[in-house]
Amino acid sequence: GGGDLQVSRADLLLTAVLTLTAALLGVGWGTRRDGRAVLERLALRLPRRHHWRLAASATVLLLGAQWVMSAFWFALSPESLEQFGEVSRALFGGFTSLEGALLASVLPAFSEEILFRGALQPRFRLLPTAALFAVVHVQYLFSPATLLIFVVGIGLGLVRRHGDTTASILTHFGYNFVNLLLAMLASQAGPGG
Q: Is the Cα torsion angle 157, 163, 166, 171 positive or negative in sign?
């Protein structure tokens, strides 16, 4: 079975800690910048009303883009879309509770956005950062999913450009959480449900 691929809560936490550490050290925390300067460099602020509005709008747009791309993908290669679904279920099958979905949404959103949109995008620009974001998600192999993740990376980068890293964190969380909730509902409905 696909159980050997399954991501655990410890895996998620360790990955988040390592990702955050790379981001913080990369922007000079403790060497060139103090805590306040690091937060400013990473464009991190407490969420305000405009963050929530931007994140909600961007999440809906990203989910819509995903739906359209998935429809094309299904039309072109239904078997590879099913393989992608199997890999996703194998990886995230352990997160079928609300608590699990929250954890699997919060940790990657927080750590990945701080690294990619907070630390890297200001230096490497939008498209190279989105490409790196897609390549780092190698669990989906090189498939149409890589293009989808690239598009999501561009969307998150645009949110960062027009807002800040806080807004991109909220958007990434919303995108992950809605997808995990839909997967939970689909698995509870069962085949043909």
A: negative
In the chain, where the domains are located? 2-189
- Residue 3 pLDDT > 70: no
Residue 139: both structure tokens together = 């669990």
Which pTM was predicted?
Answer: 0.91
